[in-house]
C-alpha cells in the first residue's frame, strides 16, 4: 500500500519556515545535498531538475500534496506547475484557480485515504504545517532534514493539532559535515 511521507526541512526548534513563510536560511549546498539529489530527486521542482539536467527518477513519489501557502512562492515566481513530473494536489479551504496541471481539494484527509488505496508510488506531503497537522492520522513516514539553525518563531512542523500523541519509531539517522541531520521515522501501529 502507498504511504504518505512527510519529507521536509525543519529547524532545530521545529519550524519548517520563518513567520512569513520563508525558508531561505535552510542550507542548499553541502554534503547532505546528495540525499536530496540521489534519494529524493522526485521531490525537486521541475525548473530545478531542468537546470541541473536531471531526469526525475520516478522511483519514490508519483504524487505531491501541498498546502496553498506552500504553493504560493512558486506562483509568485511565475511557476504555475512546480512539480510537473508528479500528480500535484493543493489543499485549500477556499476555491482556487490554478494551473490545469494541479488539482485542488478542500478535503485532504479523505483524499489521502483514497489515494492510499490506489496503486502507485508513495505520496509526498510537501507542507505546510497546518496541512501536516490535519493529516497526522494518515502520515506513515517522516523524513526530516534537520538544519543546524533556530528560527525562534515561524510555521511549525505540525500546526493546529489538538493533543493527539502519535508514535513514530526511529528508522535511520544520518549526520553530515554541513550540520544537517536526515532523520527518518516510521509510524508505529497499535498492536
Description:
- The chain contains five helices and ten strands, in the order ββααβαββαβαββββ.
- The longest helix is centred in the middle third of the chain and has 10 residues.
- The chain is of the alpha/beta class.
- It has a single domain, classed as Dihydrofolate Reductase, subunit A (3-Layer(aba) Sandwich).
Question: What's this, in brief?
Answer:
It is built from five helices and ten strands; from the N terminus they run E-E-H-H-E-H-E-E-H-E-H-E-E-E-E. It has helices at 33-39, 46-52, 68-76, 108-117, 129-135; strands at 4-11, 15-17, 61-67, 87-91, 102-105, 122-127, 139-147, 155-156, 168-175, 181-187.
Q: What is the CATH-assigned architecture?
A: 3-Layer(aba) Sandwich
- CATH homologous superfamily - what is it? Dihydrofolate Reductase, subunit A
Q: Separation of termini?
A: 19 Å
Summed up, the helix count is 5
CATH top-level class? Alpha Beta
How many β-strand stretches? Answer: 10
Count of distinct structural domains? 1
Whole-number radius of gyration?
A: 16 Å
What structural category do the secondary elements indicate?
alpha/beta
Give the neighbour order of strands across the main sheet: 5-4-3-6-1-7-10-9
Strand content: 25-35%
List its salient traits.
191 residues, alpha/beta, 5 helices, globular
Topology:
Elements: E1 4-11, E2 15-17, H1 33-39, H2 46-52, E3 61-67, H3 68-76, E4 87-91, E5 102-105, H4 108-117, E6 122-127, H5 129-135, E7 139-147, E8 155-156, E9 168-175, E10 181-187
Amino acid at each position: 500500500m502507498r504511504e504518505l511521507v512527510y519529507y521536509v526541512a525543519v529547524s532545530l526548534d521545529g519550524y519548517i519556515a520563518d513567520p512569513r513563510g520563508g525558508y531561505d536560511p535552510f542550507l542548499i549546498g553541502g554534503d547532505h545535498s546528495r540525499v536530496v539529489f540521489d534519494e529524493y530527486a522526485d521531490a525537486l521542482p521541475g525548473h530545478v531538475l531542468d537546470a541541473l539536467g536531471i531526469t526525475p527518477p520516478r522511483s519514490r513519489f508519483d504524487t505531491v500534496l501541498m498546502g496553498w501557502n506552500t504553493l504560493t512562492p512558486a506562483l509568485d515566481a511565475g511557476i504555475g506547475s512546480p512539480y510537473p513530473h508528479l500528480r500535484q494536489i493543493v489543499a485549500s479551504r477556499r476555491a482556487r484557480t490554478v494551473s490545469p496541471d494541479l488539482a485542488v481539494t478542500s478535503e485532504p484527509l479523505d483524499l489521502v485515504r483514497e489515494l492510499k488505496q490506489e496503486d502507485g508510488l508513495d505520496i509526498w506531503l510537501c507542507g505546510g504545517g497546518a496541512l501536516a497537522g490535519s493529516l497526522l492520522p494518515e502520515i506513515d513516514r517522516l523524513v526530516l532534514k534537520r538544519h543546524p539553525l533556530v528560527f525562534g518563531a515561524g510555521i511549525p512542523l505540525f500546526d493546529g493539532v489538538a493533543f493527539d500523541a502519535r508514535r513514530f519509531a526511529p528508522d535511520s539517522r544520518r549526520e553530515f559535515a554541513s550540520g544537517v541531520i536526515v532523520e527518518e521515522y516510521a509510524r508505529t501501529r497499535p498492536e
